[in-house]
Write a structure and sequence with these properties.
about 190 residues; alpha/beta; 5 helices; about 55% helix
Length: about 190
């Protein structure tokens, strides 16, 4: 019997630093980190060049590792409008790269990721790094924190996607069943 392995690309988007991680889950639900890193752009570069670089690097990652799915942090902004606009544009080029590679994307709010990884939605960066290290049985915690966050997002997805998939399949089945019953009632009239 051949084992099925699911591969996910976790992404923590940012114009300055975009963290990424490739994780797998085998048929026995064992999680493994295959690769992780950081796409860094310099503040001295023009915005279009920075976005193009992020797009190109992410496209290379998608081609090299061919993940089945992508999980990306869903950002909430409470600070500067410039930071918000830059991150929104960065997310746009990431979404475009994933769409062109025909990879489905799931978005996770930071609190949900922290809750899944640490058991609390208010965990700090060091707690997330430590729990990622323990979850994957790594010698040391991934760093910098953008990379660790990308790994955490990937773990969150690999742990929650199977359940979400079952819920979606059940909901689709129930919707078809309801439509069939309604069609049957309409025929009898």
């Amino acid at each position: 019997m051949q084992e099925h392995t699911t591969t996910v690309l976790g992404i923590d988007p940012g114009l300055d630093r975009t963290g990424w991680a490739i994780l797998t889950r085998n048929a026995r639900s064992v999680l493994s980190l295959r690769a992780c890193g950081l796409i860094h752009t310099g503040a001295d570069q023009e915005l279009p060049k920075r976005l193009s670089y992020i797009f190109d690097e992410l496209t290379k990652i998608l081609q090299t590792y061919a993940p089945d799915q992508v999980a990306m942090e869903q950002n909430f902004f409470l600070k500067r409008a410039t930071t918000m606009a830059n991150t929104v544009m960065t997310r746009g080029v990431i979404i475009l790269a994933c769409e062109q590679a025909q990879k489905p994307i799931t978005f996770y709010p930071p609190k949900r990721v922290k809750l899944m990884i640490c058991g609390t939605g208010t965990a700090d960066k060091k707690q997330v790094q430590r729990m990622v290290q323990l979850t994957l049985n790594l010698d040391k915690a991934p760093s910098p924190d953008d990379t660790a966050d990308a790994v955490a997002i990937g773990i969150c997805h690999l742990k929650t996607a199977p359940l979400n998939n079952m819920i979606n399949v059940k909901a689709a089945f129930l919707a078809k069943l309801k439509a069939a019953k309604e069609a049957q009632i309409t025929k009898k009239r």
